[in-house]
Amino acid sequence: MEGENETLTTDFILSGLFPNMKYVSILIYIIILIYLAAVTGNIILFFLIWIDMRLHTPMYFLLSQLSFIDLALISSTVPKMMINFFSGRKDITRLACGIQIFFFFTLGGAECILLTLMAYDRYVAVCNPLRYVVIMNHRVCLQMTIVSWIGGILASTAHTFYTMNLPICGSREIHHFFCEMPAIMKISCKDTSTYELVVLAMGIAFIIVPFGLIMASYTFIFLAVLHTKSSHGRNKALATCSSHLTVVSFYLGPCVYMYMTPGFSHTPEQEQAVSVFCTVLTPMLNPLIYSLRNKDVVRAFHKVLRKHPVSKQNT
Where does the sequence pass through the membrane (predicted)? Predict the structure, then answer.
């Protein structure tokens, strides 16, 4: 009978990041530096958007939500990985594993939806500028944020409930550095082929459809920019849109590999490498991508430095 030899213990074992790697400690220290940079960058960007009145616009409001999601996303995996590495322990309770899966998918789903809505914001700003303030009012921005979170929570609840109820009959070692759904499905003694179709359908809803809507928005934006006579307006629009497209490609690209291709085609090492890029590198790169090419954010940062110069604080 299926599940007859299901193991009685409820804890899981996390194999850790690249357990067969010779100098994994060096990689861990690099990830710690990336984590600190991601936390610092996203907090600074979130702080600047909320204190500078010139950044109180729909685009920057949505960007502040993206910073919050990125900050929470990287914090849902990296701290536990660091604790396990430095303590030498690899166990994680069933409850902690379920919580980690829930927050990971909630944040990931919310980010997919939010990136789509940010593209719509840019579409309205470029293609319908005279009605931008009316269409993208504060109430609409709040509704966009709520829709992003609700969509992420609903998808995450379904994934978490199914994953945490899978029977594990043999080893409870998860070949990953955090509780990831595909890795748990691989150690289950239950046939998960049907649910893999559900995952594929979810992937279409949260990855392919958003990507299609984003590309449609930017197609209209590109056509509108071509007819713009002002070179300054054209360059500003292209700079903002290129930053957003870069973030979209960095985030949705790995998601396509993880959730839109058959699980048996991935090795644990490949899944971990993609997860590091998606959950560690991307949250660090996002504030850099949006700030380095954004004169408004740079101007707000310089304004804060002028008000609170480091030299005066040290003297």
Answer: 26-51, 58-78, 98-120, 140-162, 197-225, 237-260, 272-292
Q: Tokens in use for 175?
A: 């070949």
- The Cα–Cα gap between 232 and 79 comes to 44
Q: How confident is the model at residue 246 (pLDDT cuts 50, 70, 90)?
A: confident
pLDDT digits (tens, 9 = 90+) for 52-63: 888 899 999 999
Task: Report how far residue 133's alpha carbon sits from residue 136's, in angstroms, rounded to the nearest whole number.
Answer: 5
Position 107 scores a pLDDT of 95
- Tokens for 123, please give them: 């579409």
Q: Amino acid letter at 239? A: A
Tokens 């110069």 label which residue? 309
User: What is the C-alpha to C-alpha distance for residues 262 and 266, in angstroms, rounded to an integer?
Assistant: 8
The two tokens of residue 125 are 């700003």
How are strands ordered across the β-sheet holding 173-174?
91-92, 12-14, 173-174
Kindly report the pTM of this predicted structure: 0.88
**Residue 262, exposed/middle/buried by CB under 10 A (0-12, 13-18, 19+)?**
exposed
- The bridge status of strand 173-174 relative to strand 91-92 is unpaired
Question: CB within 8 A of 168, min separation 6: which ones?
Answer: 6, 7, 187, 188, 189
DSSP reduced 3-state for 229: coil
Cα–Cα distance for residue pair 237/227, rounded to 1 Å: 12
Number of H helices, E strands in the chain: 14, 3
- Say what the pLDDT of residue 116 is: 94
Angle between helix 138-164 and helix 94-127 axes, rounded to 10 deg: 150
Q: Are 121 and 65 in contact (CB under 8 A)?
A: no
- Whether the CB-CB separation of 147 and 113 falls below 8 Å is answered with yes
**pLDDT band, residue 8 (cuts 50/70/90):** very low
Residue 130: both structure tokens together: 């005279």
Question: Which phi and psi (to 5°) does residue 88 adopt?
Answer: 80, 0
